[in-house]
Amino acid sequence: MAALRTFMKHDALAAFIVPSTDPHSGEYVPEYWETRKWISGFTGSAGTVVITHDQAGLWTDSRYFIQADQQLKGSGIVLFKDRMPGTPSIAEWLGEVLPEGSSVGIDGWVNATAVALTLKENLAVRGMQLVATEDPFTQIWPDRPVLPSACPFILPISLTGEPCKDKIKRIRQAYQERGAEGLLVSALDEVAWTLNLRGCDVHCNPVFVSYLFITNADTTLYIYKEKVNDELRNYLFEEGVLIKDYSAIYEDIASCPLHCLFVPDMTNYALYQAAGHVARLVRDTSPIVFLKAVKNDTELMGFENAMRKDGIAMVKFLRWIKEAVNSGQETEISIDRQLQQFRAQQEGFKGISFDTIAGYQEHGAIVHYEATQETAATLHPEGLLLLDSGGQYLDGTTDITRTIVLGAVSEEQKTDYTLVLKGVIALSKIVFPKGTCGTQLDVLARQFMWEKGINYGHGTGHGVGHFLNVHEGPHQFRMNYVPAQLLPGMTVTNEPGIYKEGKYGIRIENTMKIVRHAQTEFGEFYRFVPLTICPIDLEAICVEMLTAEERDWLNDYHRHVYEILSPYLEEEEKKWLEKATQKI
Fold this sequence. Notes:
Layout: H1 2-10, E1 15-18, H2 35-40, E2 48-52, E3 56-60, H3 65-71, E4 78-81, H4 90-97, E5 103-107, H5 113-125, E6 129-133, H6 137-140, E7 153-154, H7 157-160, H8 164-176, E8 182-185, H9 188-195, E9 197-198, E10 211-215, E11 219-222, H10 230-238, E12 241-244, H11 249-254, E13 260-262, H12 269-274, E14 280-282, H13 287-293, H14 297-324, H15 332-344, E15 349-352, E16 357-360, E17 384-389, E18 391-393, E19 396-397, E20 400-405, H16 411-429, E21 431-433, H17 438-450, E22 461-463, E23 472-477, E24 491-494, E25 497-500, E26 504-507, E27 510-520, E28 523-530, H18 548-565, H19 571-580
Parallel strand pairs: 1-5, 3-4, 5-6, 11-12, 13-14
Antiparallel strand pairs: 1-2, 2-3, 7-9, 8-10, 10-11, 15-18, 16-17, 17-20, 18-19, 21-28, 22-23, 24-27, 25-26, 27-28
Helix pairs in contact: 14-15, 16-17
């Protein structure tokens, strides 16, 4: 922070804002752009640090309140609990601590346009100006990691179900409907999906650092030249895609001759400013977001294959941990390693889809807890383990949470576990009409908790990419309004939870797909079908709290789990699974 403050003095800045993102607005970013983590010590995936010459604050959401409070101790950075009553916004806080006329700096390359413009407006109301500067961390971070250099690889049509050329045609049609003549694509998962390419530049996300510029005449990939081998060069040539160096994107956008350009909201502010000379800019959600969210039949079949393999790995793990915990030698870290080994045995496994959350007892209450050598708890044959994990397979991405009974549990834990399960079932069973959004269904998962005065701060579900980012939009289940409609072909998680600080956390999560249910005189209706194939722990259920319909759903689900997985298991594993999926 001292080095950044020296930079601020040189540029006459009263404050500097450091977000968690990179030039591509990624949730997970290459180490090179982990500037917020480096300067603050806070390791969560979401958060923004604001530094003045004598104060500093971190804004993060409810998933990270406990973690941030622990990691910021002694740093001089104050935790601001975002979206909570009484918490000022960044602009409001700066208005309180800085005089009018102050300049607030950002690196335009790592701030999304929508965020920067809103901040600029809110600062202006308080008599302050927003200044886009060069990247200060090139000066102040002495051992900054290098940018990744691995070559992307081609995903065959047998896995994608649609050629790159056809996707580009659909994209052109989408932006032309908005009157645009071109689309700037900066989100890495959108580039990867469009080109049927995958990479390894970002931890857990199979993407590669690049931009894509699609116009009515050309499609150009901007990528570091050393990342392009002959196979990739030939493939892109056959698909009609030009190649330019990554750094050429700014000049090409700044000299763009188009009359109307579609610049998505999440494009970085530097490129938005470069495009400022274009007669008209369309600034909205990228049309690729909506195209990518609806999976084709090939992609959905891939999901089913990936979920089956993941289910096999999870059954092997669950059987193992129920015995291994008795040794008193297993920790939150060691069980994560064991789970990865079971997944690695499956065909097409390419790594984890996010850092595993293995929270034993009170650690389970930290929503996005990540164990370290210093914090890792030793597991004992008692209580609950919250295990949220996922895998990347060539044919799909998985995301699953199971709360695992390791031994004796309290009546309070059983009650809360059953409340969570009831929420999972209610959302899984619903039939809904065309035009419904996730916000309208979110209450289904929360209703039983609300009756007891309980709630959770995170969303109930998010989209899942096809061998891409585990968090994908535009659709979600959330309390706050998200207008994106739920459509057949979309994949989405169902993951309510209860978290009691200092005691335990409970979450159960299945990934689901949306399918057509019926066409009636009242219109078209849809429903959810579980994709996740894994038993839900029966040992913590208060059966008397479940209705007959809820028991039927759970029994049907478990019968399906056994039918799908048992042919791939050894005899002892089959016996274990038969008991784990027994009728209640």
